[in-house]
Amino acid sequence: MDAASFRRDARARLELRAIQALLDSQRRRIQAYTELRGPSARVRDSAPEPPADPSTPSVQEVLDAVPLPALLVAPVLGPDGGLRDVFYLGQNAACRAYGASRVPDAKLPRWSGPLPLFEHLPSLAGTAVPAMLERAHRERTPQGPETVEWLIETAEGPVRLNDEVRAAPCGDHLLLTWQRGHRLRMAEAAQQLVRTCWAEWNLGDLHVEPSHGFRDVLGLTDRTSVPTLSGLAEIVTPESLPRLYQLLYDVILRKRKTECELRLTGSVARVFRMAAEPVRIAPGSLVWAVRAVLIDVTAERRRRESAESAAREAHRQLERAEAVTEVAEVLRDAVLPHFQDELAAYGLDAAAVYRPDAREARVGGDWYKARKTPDGHPLIALGDARGHGLEAATLMAKLRYALAGLAYTEQPVERLTHWLNEVACADGNESTATAIIARYHPERALLRWTCAGHPCPVLLRDGRATKLPDPEGGPGLTLGVLCDTEYTAATATLRTGDIVLMYSDGLTERRDSDPDLDTRRFLAAAEDCMAEAAPGAGHAALQDYAERLVTRLDGPHRTDDATLLALRIIGTAPPARS
Question: Could you tell me which of 103, 118, 111 has the C-alpha nearest to residue 153?
């Protein structure tokens, strides 16, 4: 046993002793109170005189004195001495009142001589009553109570009776008594339905008066005795002992109602809410008993613990999401450029719009790049890394920065794309991405570009949008799918005023949609936005056009981040080496 367990056990033993000491102290107070207030002995000089003319009550008077409905019946024995039949002889006042309240239209037997009981009330023959009467006659001991349900025909139809019946020998006759049993059964059923029981613990003699079903609600077997208050302390967990002591202290010494929560030991750790009150013989006197109701709140407690656990987990997830969002936003600001006028020297104006997937961390795998290079041929690229959230953003950053470094080799875009594919392949099986990688040659207004599984760029000229032709042999493989893949480049000769649009598929994709239909939708939207308001001169006008185009295509259908990069030719210029 480790030190912590030893300390817990020692504390539990102290708590049990404290509870027992509290109960013993109250018991001594009750005994002292009884001795102090007990009746004084009286000395009688002579015995009281008996009544002058005692008289024996009649059978009917004796029957009427019984507070329960009763029938007096006579057994009819067979040749073997067994009970063959019973004859009704009489009933008491309580029986007549019962009949009047339950079956007012029925013709119950009257005192008019012996009548066969089961012939007059045939539905009783199929109940436990015949066997009870037979045992009472044979064993000469009271039988029951047993639940008996039977019917009596009335003018209104059959009436169902549900009673707790007893049978007892009465001289040479038998006495059949009953009381309405549905109230007891309903109380017991109610206890089972809401898992509630109650008891009264006498502090003077340690007697316990429990409700029906007390053991079952507490999970005790029928052979287990109903626990005293000290016995209750022995079957609760050590953590519950301080609460039980406080409850008993408040009820016994402070004489007030209170409640607490107790957890029972056992394979099924049941949790009960115990509400208790003091029982006193007279106002202001000692507390003679503790009356309490115990409600099984195990299911409620488990639901509450599950809800609290879910709330804690949701809070942790929220904190994580907020942290991821913060990191992602910082990463996005660091990775996605904010265009100034650095490309104007090359005859280009650039604008970009990025819309994150709202379901993720406000950043995804989309990336773009438009920047000058030492050879005077600006690098222009747009890509989409596989996945969502921070993982996609991490892959996006790797590819973007790798491309920025590779661009300084001054190699053509086919070679740059080949190398970038090798970077993606080396990163792992899940590191795939699509991309458009281009170089702009300002001295010839020529755009050379490769496609790695990405939507092809769109040319917007004179208000008409067309998809630029695919490279020879079609678009290349997605980055990261197959090592040592070669890519071919396509070329497009541009003129002043042309706008080249590069975009990620998150902007156009719809669930179960066709890629060709997505492309046509993009072309139509680009033309419509141009027809509504053609962008004027300056970066702000181009940015406004890009924003309007993205807004037109965006909507609740989108399940990915979306990016649009717009390049406008504002003139030609010789390459400027840096």
Answer: 103
